[in-house]
Automatic annotation (TrEMBL):
InterPro entries: Cupin_2, OryJ/VirC-like, RmlC-like_jellyroll, RmlC_Cupin_sf. It comes from Parendozoicomonas haliclonae. It comes from the Bacteria. Residues 80-147 form the Cupin type-2 domain. Pfam families: Cupin_2. This is Cupin domain protein.
Length: 164
């Protein structure tokens, strides 16, 4: 059983690595020049600019980033657009999610009372299993590039009643 868990953890870590590589490719195609950590720049010429956007083992509410087990890892990339005045509705994610604010300003409200405003160019590690909603209080669209590090066949987002 311990070997199985080690194998599943290694597989999940490989999938997470692939997701981060994919994130770098997508973001470098017009949004930023690169997204690898500075320690990963030794093989690049000095003309390549590398900027760490965010690096942490914690989510926005201070929870640990943990990959769900068991199951076949599956990464889903979504572009989410909230028009002015839109709300996502109360929901939670049972899996890690990395979001990048491409445009606009999003107010993230957690059911425990924490509120955070995210602006263009900011990265968010969404809270895992914490009820929250996103709100666009501005007069312009909010556009988010989101990477869901899920499990094949399992939901990445679960809606909850508006009473939290």
């Amino acid at each position: 059983m311990a070997t199985y868990r080690r194998d599943r953890r290694a597989e999940a870590n490989r999938s997470l690595s692939h997701c981060l590589i994919g994130l770098w490719i997508i973001l470098s195609c017009g949004y930023i020049s690169a997204a690898f950590a500075e320690s990963d720049t030794s093989g690049y010429s000095s003309a390549i600019q590398v900027e760490v956007l965010k690096q942490s083992g914690l989510t926005i509410n201070g929870g640990l980033i943990e990959y769900p087990e068991p199951g076949q890892p599956e990464i889903t990339t979504r572009k989410v657009t909230l028009p002015p005045g839109a709300k996502t509705g109360w929901h939670y994610h049972p899996v890690p999610i990395v979001g990048y604010i491409l445009e606009g300003e999003l107010e993230l409200q957690l059911a425990d009372g924490l509120t955070k405003t995210l602006k263009t160019g900011e990265v968010i590690y969404e809270a895992i299993n914490a009820v929250h909603q996103g709100v666009n209080n501005s007069s312009k669209d909010v556009v988010i590039l989101a990477f869901y590090l899920g499990i094949e066949g399992e939901p990445t987002t679960i809606k909850v009643p508006s009473s939290k």
